[in-house]
Amino acid sequence: MTMLGIELREEDDMTAVTAGGVMEYVVVALLAIGGVWAAVHGARLLVRAVRRADDPASSLRAVRGIRGLVIGVAAWALAAGLLLEQTWLLVFGAVFLAEELYETGVLVLVLRMADDATSGAR
Questions:
Q1: pTM for the predicted model, two decimal places
Q2: What is the distance between the terminal CA atoms of the chain, rounded to a whole angstrom?
Q3: Which of 36, 83, 93, 105 has a CA 20 to 30 Å removed from the CA of 29?
Q4: Is 6 inside any structural domain?
């Protein structure tokens, strides 16, 4: 095979394909592990927020917990999209992540503004 004026042997071509495949599996594994970590961390925050519902910081803690769960689901969707070579999973993961981060970001902003307004009134 000739590529860019360089003669490649069949072994070189297969090595490049294999190296690319290994890198893909590494990325998939990192996304899956990161998703598990984010989901577990988010679940812990959410449980803590529900158990301490009377705490003024529990609303923000609950939103952070939901964010962790969302990041976990999106990371798993991206990992599955890469592993199964499904474009719709990649698009779903990216759009779901972007929309949920925007939504929870606005919610955090509103909660912080409300907290500032009530603390200033005291």
A1: 0.74
A2: 77
A3: 105
A4: no
Query: What is the count of structural domains for the chain?
Result: 1
Distance CA 67, CA 40 (A): 11
Task: Determine, yes or no, domain membership for 2.
Answer: no
Say how far apart CA 19 and CA 5 lie, in whole Å: 22
In a domain, 79, yes or no: yes
In a domain, 46, yes or no: yes
Q: Which two tokens stand for residue 41?
A: 């961390």
51-97 pLDDT tens trace: 998 988 888 899 999 999 999 999 999 999 999 999 999 999 999 99
Residue in 117, 120, 115, 5 with CA at minimum distance from that of residue 60: 115
Query: Distance between CA atoms of 17 and 1, rounded to whole angstroms?
Result: 14
Looking only at the bridges linking them, the beta strands covering 6-7 and 2-3 are: antiparallel
